[in-house]
């Protein structure tokens, strides 16, 4: 069965964005891009909430074709264009979208159908609202977190309205020279 892994940058105090959605505190550099790019290239599907999908769709399809595009932009653009995109949205229409599945209702049933299909892990990129919905339905199988060396004090939390304890097992950690620390957890379903 395919697994859904939530991929997020978070602050030390657990926020994924500032109070107005700002993400200018996130540290990324070539070391992180190379590391993340390696794992992303080993998967074949991305899951997004509507807002994150629109942001991605406005940039990634042509990012690698632009003059002076970075190595990261070229590689991620190629991957993005090949990857199957799963979008949680009640308003996005599927017409004309290539290699994209829109899920607007029956979330648990539809996600479980996708998890049963052949393929590799599904990376849930950003999308805090989608992440919150999937956490409530116990559909996230792991967390791939990049803890940034900043305390925001307020903002959009990664975890909110958690009803039941979620036990995790740490797979690995990795510090980066920028001060960011990667944490890889799997949900312990026992």
From TrEMBL:
Highest taxon in the source lineage: Bacteria
GO molecular function: 5-amino-6-(5-phosphoribosylamino)uracil reductase activity
Cross-referenced InterPro entries: RibDG_C, Riboflavin_Biosynth_HTPR
Bacterial bifunctional deaminase-reductase C-terminal domain sequence ranges: 2-180
An individual GO BP term: riboflavin biosynthetic process
PANTHER family membership: 2,5-DIAMINO-6-RIBOSYLAMINO-4(3H)-PYRIMIDINONE 5'-PHOSPHATE REDUCTASE, DIHYDROFOLATE REDUCTASE FAMILY PROTEIN (AFU_ORTHOLOGUE AFUA_8G06820)
Protein's recorded name: Dihydrofolate reductase family protein
